[in-house]
Amino acid sequence: MKVVATQRSQLLGSRIAGMLGVGMAEARFSRFPDGEHSLQRGTLDGETVVVGSVVDADSLVQLLLLLDACRESDVSLVVPYLGYARQDRAFREGEPVSARAIAGALGRGVSRVVTVHVHKETVLPHFGAPARNVTLEAAIAGHIENLGLTRPVILAPDHGALTFARAVASLGGWEAEHLEKTRISGTEVRMEARNLDARGRDVVMVDDIISTGGTLAAAAGMLRAAGARGVHAIGVHGIFVGGALDLLRNAGLREIACSDTIESGSSRFSAAAAIASALSR
Question: Residue 222 — very low, low, confident or very high, per pLDDT cuts 50/70/90?
Fold first, then answer.
């Protein structure tokens, strides 16, 4: 077995290979003069694990080309971050089900698929191959432990993320709560954690995706005004659209962390162990 990764997933790919105790196959990426992608892969050995996050159009094309270059091998596909997964149904007439289109294209010819915190597991059948979604509660709880916080409370940004927050909290014996949003007007929304007294507490907000950072920044301001000792934000996938990182830093967050499903300077913990465990089953 060898692991081979697209350009945006090199670090995670090498960590997965290390966890599995196997080597990496080289992949050299380039472009033709007209801008089209090209690649050359190295020697494979039996089963191949192809690792690639879909974070933009270029990474999608690279992943499709790499899968085709490995077509003669028994391929296990790892998609740490599946872009387009949030368009999991046609919200208006004439729209595509983008998650179905992307998963269907990637799943052709592979033996199995592993995703990480995919937006909804209803996407998995669209791959057309046995697919498993893994979650990173243990990795996040371990990162929180390393922060050395005293009696932190784990906060979900909305009720939908409360199950995830509770799962993280249960691993450390911490409390879990969620924010409730009340719309005051067309432009004003009030957020509050009704059952949380934040005074003197460290609050760790957890979510699957950090995108624009708007909700987290507003919540951080509210929590600091309520007397929180420190506010931290941890997400599985750090997309950080536009100036999201600056927005969060200016909101006074002590910690902005994410995994390496999308590699960045905020990648503070790894999805490699969870992925390697799924591949070993």
Answer: confident
With a CB cutoff of 8 Å and minimum separation 6, the contacts of 5 are 12, 13, 14, 24, 27, 50, 51, 52
How buried is residue 18: exposed, middle or buried, by Cβ count under 10 Å (0-12/13-18/19+)?
middle
State the DSSP string of 211-236.
SS-HHHHHHHHHHHHTT-SEEEEEEE
**Active site (annotated) includes residue 181:** yes
What does DSSP say about strands 37-41 and 27-31: parallel, antiparallel, or unpaired? antiparallel
Q: Which CATH fold would you assign to the domain 137-258?
A: Rossmann fold (3.40.50)
Selected catalytic residue, list 37, 132, 166, 181: 181
Q: Is the pLDDT of residue 72 over 50?
A: yes
Place of tokens 């929304």: 189
- CATH code: domain 2-135+271-279 is 3.40.50.2020
